[in-house]
Amino acid sequence: MLKTLKPYYIYLFSFLFIVLNSILIANEFYYLALVPFVLAIVYIAFYDVEKLMWFIVFTTPISMNLEELSIGGIGMYLPTEPLMFGVMILFFLKLIADKKFDSKIVKHPVTVIILLQLGWILFTSITSEMPIVSLKFLLSRLWFVVCFYFIGTQLFKKISNYKIFYWCYLIPLAGVVIYAVVRLATYSFNEKAAHWVMEPFFKDHTSYGAILAMFVPIPFIFLAKAEKYSIRVIAGIFLAILVIGTIFSYTRAAWVSLVVAIVLYFIYKYKIKFKYLATIGAVGLIVLAFNWTSLMMDLERNNQDSSANLSEHVQSISNVSTDASNLERINRWTSAWLMFLERPVFGWGPGTYVFQYAPFQLSKNKTIISTNVGNNGNAHSEYIGPLAEQGLIGTIMVVLLISMVFYKGSALYHRLPKGELKSVVLFTLLGLFTYVIHGFLNNYLDTDKASVPFWGFIALIVAIDVYHSDNDSELLETKAK
């Protein structure tokens, strides 16, 4: 179309736009200046959606929430979520036109569970106490899943794209870490300041810590001897930045998730069989059951609150007597459980917990940070939240999805020969596992920061399983493109 325009028309349109935009800026109206950017994005979306996807990944760590910036009352991240919504629409239009999607992906067990989960979210949105809120939740989940699972699997047909995906997220994330640590240094690394120094890019230190923990394993992929020396040096620098950021995030759940991920690493490396793990787990549960009373007494005697001292901060993880953060989690979990008991089948509706849990708070569980207006987080669990919002089936779907991803991912890891792809699968699983553990204590899959890597990691594992695990010649051909 642009080729058909005469040069003087282009000059005329440009001149008129500059004049009009200048007048509007003089009158404090700035939105017209976004038009060239929007037009460029639309052009890229139609002619090179892959580059648009990498742009979305790159801007995710530095995206900002409109609601937190007091730009209207819309809880949407800019620029990522509007772009994901547009890509999702294009995906569905293409799906209608082509009337097909790669059957190997559609039939994969992980995809089947994802589709069943989306179907259940739709059904419980219809039965929801607040259908509009639940449908918004469904729409948000759809653009994450469409962009970074379904489209993601197609991007990872070209296996070298995993490098672009990881570096597009790592580079701006490292920038946020440097920004946050430098700000924190001006406050003498005070633990209280660590709660907000990452703003406006992350809403709090717990979500910040969760994402850092997810990406700590990733630089190890690029530390392999097969990589160029310069790449290994850069990967080492990024690893150091992420570790420092995780330490000074003062996010205890992130620390715990990394420790558990290290345990999983040794389980994979030494090929410890599941029957031995099951035996150890069963013995552990029996010992825990017999010592439950004394354990709870010990926990109640721990009155170490959150602290800028790292050792004291670690001790506060098990404080369920005075630490407000820990006690508030118990309050939210108890509220979610009581909500589930009242509506065990369909729940209260996806995304409705923050609006419905207040009456279910028990006075004995309330803390100094408790609220009745839903402005201080949600159920603080990726597993208990769906229990309240989508009933028992909702939580079962979450557990099934995670179980299937790790079942297929573990089998894939052990099946692959030693080399690049084996390392990619291992460290991607470890990164994903940190969030699986973190999900017991927090939930962030309603944000772009967590959802982009979460669904992207899963897409990468599935893509390797489907496209690159059995056909060496196909892998070599794909890498050569």
List the helices and strands and how they pair.
Blueprint: H1 7-26, H2 35-47, H3 49-59, E1 64-65, E2 77-78, H4 80-98, H5 103-106, H6 109-126, H7 131-155, H8 161-185, H9 205-215, H10 229-247, H11 252-269, H12 274-290, H13 292-301, H14 310-315, H15 324-342, H16 353-356, H17 384-415, H18 420-438, H19 448-468, H20 472-480
Antiparallel strand pairs: 1-2
Helix pairs in contact: 2-3, 3-4, 3-8, 4-7, 6-7, 6-17, 7-19, 8-10, 9-10, 9-11, 9-18, 11-18, 15-17, 17-18, 17-19, 18-19
Distance between the termini: 30 Å
Strand arrangement within the widest β-sheet reads 1-2
Per DSSP, what share of the residues sits in E-state strands of 2 or more residues?
under 5%
Number of strands: 2
Low-confidence stretches: 472-481
Please compute the radius of gyration using only Cα atoms.
24 Å
Domain O-antigen ligase-related: 238-398
Transmembrane segments: 6-24, 29-49, 69-93, 105-126, 132-152, 164-185, 205-224, 231-248, 254-270, 277-297, 391-409, 421-440, 452-469
Protein name: O-antigen ligase family protein
Keywords: Ligase, Membrane, Transmembrane, Transmembrane helix
